[in-house]
Amino acid sequence: MMEFNEQGYIELTGPPAGRSILMKFLIAFAAVAVLIATGVSSHPPRDKGDRGCRRPEGPPPDPYMILFDTDQDGEISPGEIEQSGSVLKKLDRDQSGTLTRDEMPRPPHPPRDHHPGAEHHRRPGANRPPRPGAEPMPEQRQQKAVSKNTPADTVIFTGGYETDPRDHGRPVALIAAALGVKPEVFRQAFSNVKPARGGDPSPARARANKEVLMAALGKYGITNDRLDNVSNYYRYQPERGGLWKHTPATAKAIIKEGTVTGLQITNAGSGYMTPPTVTIAGHEDVKVKVALEFSQDFSKNGSIKSLKIVK
Questions:
Q1: CA distances from 188 to 16, 167, 181, 213, 216 (A)
Q2: Among 80, 157, 199, 272, which is most exposed with the fewest C-beta within 10 angstroms?
Q3: 212 and 247 in contact (C-beta within 8 Å)?
């Protein structure tokens, strides 16, 4: 049975078995009630200036998962449901048979220096200094060539996908070579194009842009179909961290008496814009000069032409 004592607290009476079952029920009920109250109180009201803005930190951790997902696999299994009574009982620090708000886990608070309505209104990269020279692709920045697990004598290629700052991420050198013209010719033709921002152009704008390009490139023998093929092949979305179609190069180091005497290209790759950096595991002091080849053949355009050791 469940009765109230003189202090107003709930006490359990009756046979031990009945009290055990009722005890588990009360603990589970108290946990759910406190968790719901905790979840509601952890979301402060938003200011008027924050309306329509997304919270950068994302939703808070689910309190149910924190409490019952003991193996932290992202789900509450049947076994964990069976153990919920013992989990809740462990939270009863004073062994009073009841759970208070102070005994329940709470969602973590945001950092002390977090000011809602400040950081998420700031433009991405607003304080970022301008990058001199080439524009490296996201996946190529600060890339470590050799790790501790890299086998000795392994040849590693890094970088080689940097674009000219004037081209705003477009692989103009590859596009121009595939069309059979010099980069400056395509760059000049594209200067009169009005690309769509943040999505695909409308049909009318696409037709207008095509007419502009064909007017400038048609005199070089470039057909409408060839322009479409090349444009589609090298189309990509840099804002999503992607890269145009490419094939990484591979090579084998020629070692004689512990010294690198040469390099054998096993796959020339394709899609390189600039000569990649070549590092040989265990021979990091060896410098390699890379020469590229550009072609109208997609499989050879931006490929490795030669690798020479600099002495």
A1: 89, 11, 11, 10, 8
A2: 199
A3: no
